[in-house]
Specification:
By secondary structure, the chain is an all-alpha fold. It has 9 helices and no strands. The chain folds into 3 domains: 34 residues; 91 residues, Serine Threonine Protein Phosphatase 5, Tetratricopeptide repeat; 57 residues, no CATH class. The protein is flat.
Length: 212
Amino acid sequence: MEQILPAYDDPLFSIVLIIVIGLIVALVTYGWGVYREQKEEGKLLNFLEKFDSSECTLNTADMPYEPNMLKPLTLLAKAFENSGEYHKSIDLYLYLIKHVSQDQGELELMERLGNTYLHAGFLARSKSIYTEILRKKPRNVKVLYELGVVYETMQKYEKAKEVLEPLTMLGEETASLEKFLDFLLLLSNNTLSIETKVLQLKEILEQRTQHV
């Protein structure tokens, strides 16, 4: 046995030990990556279950999925959206998101789904979709703008202003949007008198003029 295994002070022992440790680390890293991927997939499916409802108009539950279906079904979903058949578009996007991976365009499909919810007037659902996208990709400028539109439409102007902070950090010019939201906040404030609103409105316009 002593002739087969290298001694502890043998350089060969150190090399074998490094190789074994490297293999263990690689296996653990791979296993952890698979676990995280499965966990994220499970969380996404649970998240999407919230949007399944009796309002669905297309029967996609038993429809088999093939990768070559992605592009034509995406185009069909967009066509349904453009024609105002939002429920059909939503059904297709939900079906596709459940069958594709992040590398195959999962986040892009989620953004399309969020846009469809927004156009259909389902503001709370579009907000949830955009928030989930930003949880995975917080530097998505386009989705940040879309989330701001949702908050503005919901008349949650303070929340819309919060969205401007990461946009500013990403180098976007947000001064005009901030003044516009200040204007909307002022108009929606029922605790101020008309005279006070007029004075503050003048201040906002003066500040806006100085930045032009």
